[in-house]
Amino acid sequence: MVPINPTHRDLLGALSAGNPSTRLKAALAAGTHPDPGFLGELVARSAVEPDFFVRDMLTWALTRLPAEITVPRLLAELTSGRAQARSQALHTLSKIGDRSAWPAITRALLHDADDEVARSAWRAAVVLVPDEERAALAEDLAAQLGRGDRAVQLSLSRALVALGDVAEPALRTGLANPDPVVRAHARATQRLLRDPDAGFALDVEEAKRVAALGPERAAGTSC
User: What is the rounded CA–CA span in Å between residue 78 and residue 139?
Assistant: First the structure.
């Protein structure tokens, strides 16, 4: 069934409805019948929408609007005090793929204290980065090796792998780091870079145990 072309009033009400199914249908309708007048509502809802599938549909609806109006509105969200607003704007920018947005992917976003914002920034960065800045981006990303839990570390590894061979020097620096967690993450990323079909074999807990106990005590507890 093709969604009925929504009015502004109907869309605004449906996007904030209590039922996530209703919100999903509203986002689908907005994307099926793209209207620049919906831009503000779609961006605003993306910043607060709790349901993953609805957020994904909101992103799709935004990609259906002209980039020349959508990108500036999303760039304004990158300075929001709300982490989800920043994260969703970055995610949508990565889907639009307009490289004019690259200067807005700042080091502050790449190192954002919120893991979801940082992960979205990494993904957007590798899509938008100019060729001549790929090596510098790899260095900036590799400076965060060892950050977060396994999901965060896998996201960072995938971003580095997406940059290709320019990531190798930055990974070698990570391999020489005195922190065993950083070294373990660098090794796992290097394996993925050289063999994309390899699994993400990173024993984070073991590396953390060694870091906490020291190599000699850690070896003694494994006996």
Answer: 22
